[in-house]
TrEMBL record, chain A:
Residue intervals of the STAS domain: 11-111
Range of residues in the leader sequence: none
Any one GO molecular function term: anti-sigma factor antagonist activity
UniProt xrefs under Pfam families: STAS (PF01740)
Superkingdom per UniProt: Bacteria
Family: Belongs to the anti-sigma-factor antagonist family.
Name of the protein in question: Anti-sigma factor antagonist
Stored NCBIfam families: ant_ant_sig
TrEMBL record, chain B:
PANTHER family xrefs: STAGE II SPORULATION PROTEIN E, STAGE II SPORULATION PROTEIN E-RELATED
InterPro entries assigned to the protein according to its UniProt record, in alphabetical order: Bact_Sigma-Reg, GAF, GAF-like_dom_sf, PPM-type-like_dom_sf, PPM-type_phosphatase-like_dom
GO molecular function (one): phosphatase activity
Positions of the PPM-type phosphatase domain: 185-396
Magnesium among keywords: no
Record carries keyword Hydrolase: yes
Pfam families hit by this protein: GAF, SpoIIE
Protein name per its UniProtKB record: Serine phosphatase RsbU, regulator of sigma subunit
Domain GAF stretches: 30-171
Amino acid sequence: MIEFGVDTRDDGIGVVTPEGRLNMVSARRLKEILSELVANGTTRIVVDLGETSFLDSSGLGALVGGLKSARQAGGDLRIARVSPAVMTVFELTNLDRVLRARESVEAAFDD
Amino acid sequence: MTSHVESLRDPDVEERRQRAVESLQILGPGKDERYERITRLARLLFDVSRTSITVLDGERAWFPSSQGFDVDEVPRSESFCDQATDLGRLLVVEDTAADERFKHLQLVRDGAVRFYAGHPLRDAIGNVVGVFCLYDSKPRTLEGELLDAFRDMAAWAEQELVSSTEMSQAGRVQASLLPSKPIRVGEWDVNGLCLPALAVGGDFYDYGVLNGVVHLALGDVMGKGTGAALVGAGARAAIRGTNSAVTAGVDLGVTATQVARSLLADLERAESFVTLFQTAIDLDDGYTRYVDAGSGLCLVVTPEGETIRLDSDDRPFGILPEDHWSEHELTLEPGARMLVFSDGLLDLIDDPMEWWVPIGELMREAADADALLASVARLTRERTPLDDVTAVAVFRRHEGVP
């Protein structure tokens, strides 16, 4: 099982922090969290992957799904603090240019 | 708290066991009625205060289903099932307070659990993935017909946890969709294998020869299990439809883009995506064209022993509607070998960051395609895969070498 930290900052940006392994079961939960945020008007979301040790294709799917719905609602989804091991998953699938990794959560929406 | 039984734990067995637990993807506490009805019935039948199906996951023991108590998880060291898992056989403790292994546990000292019976639940290859448990607040026995009934219910719980008949039938159907025999033409040798982590999986591969050209495709649908298998069957059929065009020389970027367009609506509805590696190899001269849709998992070892990664900048199918794909080319010289595989294999190697080094080494060591696939299969046996593992090997011998 995996824990999710969910936090909406003063500037309206939602920060979701999955802690542990993001696999098929936990990706389902992540997808729900992301759609709830967008449905409730938080369309700018940072997923902080600093506490995520493992990410499989279902995890990727949840992030891509979240990205699509955030953009449709006029916002964006960005990922931050990606470990080198998890980064290889984005690089292999060439999704690193759709979901560009940011150094820090704070600065994820600075550009 | 450590106990003397902890020394029973073999780190290799424990690592395999842990991976097996992770591959099962069991639903959270109380969510699965299939387990709930077993623990409910057991509480009534055995007249005990508590029952559970327990899974040891890392340092935690958690309960996919439990009756008579309201806790979702406990530290592994505080659980009764720690011992039953390590022993790997039925454990009946008639008085926990009189047993060295259990008398220190908080629940025993509180008087809440004075009787414990645990039966290990194993997956198809024997890993202990869970324990079926009875607990009572007073010492008691479990003998004769009741003991037999406990074993029966454990077998039932095991089946619910690990598999069902319908799924194993689906697995046979899926396996029958794969090519049934290798290609052996001239100096060429092509063979593949697909080992789903669950009964059915989201990986698929296909190959054949048309017009003197080998066509080969390996796809991986997001996720695993039945949903991924259904999407995979559709993708496989769409890709098959391009074989005659591809082997006649049509650009693989064009056919891949057509396939992606035709799958897009289905993939968006299913909220899924597919990675694909597809190649066409001319048997006469080894001229090879390929397209890569976010797979990135193809290696060629040249006759000189150099490892080349065949990848691209193109994304998987189902990500962006306006994406398109492009063809790349190279030549497989006599003595060259190629391995196309799914990311499940990356889980099984020690250094997934520089995976092409150990996998390139496996390719150099193998005498032929079958030997390479055998070493991939050995890795999956040694380290229980978390995801489907699929691989197709292409070997071109030196001319005149049998």
